[in-house]
Design goal:
This protein has helices at 3-9, 16-72. It has one domain. The chain is rod-shaped, with a radius of gyration of 30 Å. It is built from 2 helices and no strands. Keywords: Coiled coil. Residues 41-70 form a coiled coil.
């Protein structure tokens, strides 16, 4: 076989194993990117939730302080 014919045999679009590998690789790469995005969203959600809890705690602290001041009077 000439060198050109060999190249044609292993062309990714023609060779089923290489094509399958590329498809799996692309799917894996896309999955990893999506997983990264989901993890980033989860991290942002945790931070937002923690901030909301901190705000509620501060409101409760103010409420308790104001009631303590009323009791002192």
């Amino acid at each position: 076989m000439s060198n050109n014919k060999c190249r044609g045999l292993f062309n990714a679009s023609r060779h089923p194993i290489t094509h399958s590998f590329l498809v799996i690789y692309v799917h894996c790469t896309v999955f990893e990117k999506e997983l990264e995005t989901v993890r980033a969203r989860e991290e942002l959600e945790k931070k937002r939730s923690a901030a909301e809890i901190a705000i509620r705690v501060e409101k409760l602290k103010r409420k308790i302080r104001s009631k303590k001041e009323l009791w002192k009077k």
